[in-house]
Write a structure and sequence with these properties.
The chain has 55 residues and is α/β, with parallel strands linked by helices. 36% of the residues lie in helices and 22% in strands. The protein is built from two helices and three strands; from the N terminus they run E-H-E-H-E. It has helices at residues 12-22, 34-42; strands at residues 3-7, 26-30, 46-47. It has a three-stranded parallel sheet with strand order 1-2-3, with helices on one face.
Length: 55
């Protein structure tokens, strides 16, 4: 099964996640906001832990 890492999973990135999941990919999404990561998880994708700091 192919896999992908999508960085910036809020808007366009989330659409990419949805499409890849629909096509049978294993997807991990990364984002800074906890709300975005919760949305990624709700879509059945893995979520990268939030470790970035905004400056």
């Amino acid at each position: 099964m192919p896999s992908a890492l999508v960085i910036g999973a809020r808007n366009l990135g989330f659409s990419v996640i949805e499409r890849l999941l629909a096509d049978g990919w294993t997807v991990t999404g990364g984002a800074r906001a906890a709300e975005t990561l919760d949305r990624v998880r709700a879509a059945s994708a893995r979520r990268a832990r939030r470790r970035w700091r905004s400056t």
